[in-house]
Amino acid sequence: MMLQSLKFLLPAAGLALAFALPWNEEKTVEPPELTTTETYSGNPDNPVELGAIHWSRDLDSALALSKTIQKPVLILFQEVPGCSNCTRFGASVLSHPLIAEAVESMFVPVCIYNNKKGKDAAALDRFDEPAWNNPVVRIVDASGNDLTARMPDFRSQSEMVAGMQQALEKSGVEVPAYLKLLVDELTARDNGLDTATFSMYCFWSGEGTFGAIDGVIETEPGYQDGKEVVKVVYDPRKTSKTALDALTQPKGITACHKNAGFRVDKEPKYYLSGTSWKSVPMTTLQACRANSLVGQGKSPEPVLSPRQIILSKKNSISGKPSAIGQKDLVKAWAIATGN
After folding, report:
1. Whole-model pTM?
2. Nearest 5°: CA angle at 306, between 204 and 187?
3. What tens digit of pLDDT does each residue of 85-110 get?
């Protein structure tokens, strides 16, 4: 089957990298051959501190593999079992489906336990990392040199994905559109968003119009003061209510003076909802862009990840429910994949 031939994790055929199971440092296995969403559950039976990513447990092997397949090494220094900061990092940052996909497909992921002796302790010494610490992520080249600044903020998804983007760019690797959008959205949410409401003759076409504009993070069609409107959530560092109004006035769209009284319509992302792509979990920014592309008669594939594209093809056959409006991506992904 075509789906079974696609590989996302460590695609260099024939390379044997020893992986140690997180709960038993003595036992090693071959790297898992995860190929599609049919075998990728997003839950590789990890302890919660490690999230949904399949990790190597041997730094030297990871660095050797990095040299062979020309991918940076993403190192997680983590306490396992760990404190609440460690478990939250695993359950949030490391369990985000798009973060997990990017880590597994574009890096060599290796986890160093900061509360173990032996090779783990030696790795801590090599990078001058403290023992029994909160989670820290570093991205290095095959020689162990940092490609981006050390990432110690265990509360932030945006720090990690921005660091991933920077490391890929420094390595001369093209950053996929889905990862760039993820960086934009998470950074904007951390910095704070603004909201504006616009009236128009048709909120479905209006949602398609706003969804394509740089800086727009979310759109919702609905009603306000008896009019069809679109509520737009945007990054004020990239655009403004005045700028959005100026861009859309030629289309008969006008800014409302207030946002109060908004009632959401029952058919958000109207264009997207009429396709098989509706069952694919997306971030709100991805959904904006995908809906706009479909409204223009184009495929949304350019803004989606490889696993999202495969999931669409699988779910169009199995008839999975719509994921539109599901903002908890971890939960939506579990429903869409049946895990």
Report:
1. 0.87
2. 65
3. 999 999 999 999 999 999 999 999 99
